[in-house]
């Protein structure tokens, strides 16, 4: 794998289309007309995790169907509805006419998240799940195509997964590296983003709640989320706007 000096601190932003067996999100979105956005994951009891998801669709009936399917799934342990406090807009897709926030408890080995992270693919936004497929935006700190292919093959083999790279963009401009893009943030946005990073907010599973972060920063939860949303938008925009090509 190239060193940072050898590849000019380049990295790549990839969009991955993924299917693998024994994932409740894939099964319920294939069975019902509604879709999901996967946001965050927390550690739960007995080695399980709790994931925060937005269920969205064209009608309240569509949402009812996907909630019922998730509750009945052999792969979930509990499904609870959360109070809707703020919007989780997706930059490329409307959330439809109806949406609902869910907290779902399940076993982490039934997901592909750990495999992606352990092979250098860092999640860069909500995971969109629709029609029985997951759509991931991930960053990896190399542009070596052979290395990327090898790592993806390993993930495929470990989870019997189908993975297609639908787009890839290299970060070879001055704003291409994580460090340079952080410089785009305002002082307060950078402080909150760095605080979140230091406390494991972007780890998987997440190591701190938004309420705990807000208390640490001495601000309201709403203000904290606003700072983070603006910071994340600035960090992602340079990569999203780059010309993409097929892997």
TrEMBL record:
Keyword Transcription annotated: yes
Positions of the HTH bat-type domain: 185-237
Gene3D superfamilies: Winged helix-like DNA-binding domain superfamily/Winged helix DNA-binding domain
CDD domains reported for this sequence: HTH_ARSR
Domain of life: Archaea
Keyword Transcription regulation: yes
Keyword field: Transcription, Transcription regulation
InterPro entries (UniProt xref): ArsR-like_HTH, HTH_bacterioopsin, RNA_pol_sigma_r3/r4-like, WH-like_DNA-bd_sf
Signal peptide extent: none
Name of the molecule in the record: HTH bat-type domain-containing protein
Species this chain originates from: Haloarcula mannanilytica
